[in-house]
Each structure stands twice: as C-alpha cells, then as structure tokens.
Amino acid sequence: MSDNINQPGEYDAVLGNGLTYTGAAVLGGIEGVKQRLLAPEVSHRIAALTQAFKYGREGLSLVTQALDDCDILVRTQAYEILGNIKAPDIKAKLDEFHKKYYLIRFDGAYQSVSGNFYNYIKFYPDYTVIEVSTFDTPKPFSAWFEKDYEDSYSGYYVVDNEANNVKFSIHHIFGTVDYVGEINVKKNLVIESYSHVNSYRARKEYKFMKILL
User: Fold this and answer.
1) pLDDT average per 10 residues of sequence, the chain (213 residues)
2) Are the C-beta atoms of residues 164 and 102 closer than 8 Å to each other?
3) Domain extents for the chain?
4) How far apart, in whole angstroms, are the C-alpha atoms of residue 29 and residue 152?
C-alpha cells in the first residue's frame, strides 16, 4: 500500500496540470460512467460510451448527449453506437446530428466504379484522407486502407457545414487533384474533381462500403 494517498493509483488518470482524476476509478456503475464522460482524456470518454450502453435508458441518454461532445472522435463513437438502434426517436436524433455536423463515415470506404476500374476514398477522424484505385473485380483488404499503404495517395480534408460539403486535395506522383464532395439524397458521396496535372475535370458518385478494418 502506498504511503502517500495523494499519489496516483494504478487506475487513476493523471491530468496535464499534475492533478489526479480519480472519479472514474472510485465510482462504479452508472455513476462511474458519468464521471468518465467528464474526463478530459478523449480515450476515457470513448471507453465510457461503450460502458454506458449497458445501463438501459439512462445509459442510452448519456450516449445521446455525447452526440454534442466537443471532440469529433467522441461524437463519432456515439453515432456509431446509436446507429445500431432502430427506434424512431434515436433515428431522429441521428438525422439531427447529421445535419448539424455533416458526418463523414470512418468505418469503411467510399467506392466509385467505372467499367472495370474501381476507385476508393477513405476518411479518417484525424482529417486524413486516402485514395486507392484498382482494376478488375476488387477484393478489398484492410491493408489497402492503412495510411502508409504503398499504392495509396493521401491528403487532408475539411468539412464545410455551411456549404454542406467536404473539400480535400490528393497528392499523386505527377501532381495534385482537388476534390469537392457532398452527400446526396441517396447518402452517396458525389465528388467533383480538378486535376492540376492536365486540367481534367470529373464528377463521380461514390457509394459507401462498410469494411472491417
């Protein structure tokens, strides 16, 4: 046993200012979940959301409240949890959330098909976006969507809520291509692109594919 009760315990979270966040470690049950959802560490709040779902309506209410968390990762986790619930009131909450934050999905990739050419675009929570292309019938592997995959090209995206679109540039071997996309009524991503290499413009529709990464 420690001689100093002010020293962090095994499960205590130490804050950047030297203070110790002990609420989550001391309290169990739904009260412990509530405390963890107040933690400054994003990873603690995300973990608490998974636990909250086990506590019925009260836990569900906590997950719903997390849709307005200040961090995009927490909001996304809450969205994914609630997305598995078919209740009309939850669906209404998610529709409201989508309109407010214009969520780009991270649990898969957007696919466009032209003949035997397949193009994939994947977004990450840290605002990285990658593009992967292949010929013939695709058999997507998780390795395709790693940020350091050798046959992928990357860039960074920006979501413009007022304009209801997402903008990004992908840096290819021969130059840069700019993209502007928006979600249509079918929930597909419609992207207009402009190549700085040859001034070529294109417009493609991408369907979302959920992939276990």
Assistant:
1) 37 35 54 92 92 89 92 86 86 78 76 90 87 74 69 86 83 92 86 95 91 59
2) yes
3) 13-101, 108-210
4) 44
pLDDT of amino acid 97:
80
Predicted local distance difference test score (pLDDT) of residue 207:
93
Rounded (5°) CA angle 148-104-144: 25
Kindly give the interhelix angle for 88-101 and 56-65, rounded to the nearest 10 degrees.
Answer: 20
Rounded CA gap, 134 and 112, in Å? 11
128 closest CA partner among 101, 98, 149: 149
> In degrees rounded to 5, what are phi and psi of residue 167?
-120, 140
Domain 108-210 belongs in CATH node 1.20.58: no
Nearest to 192 by CA among 206, 208, 177, 204: 204
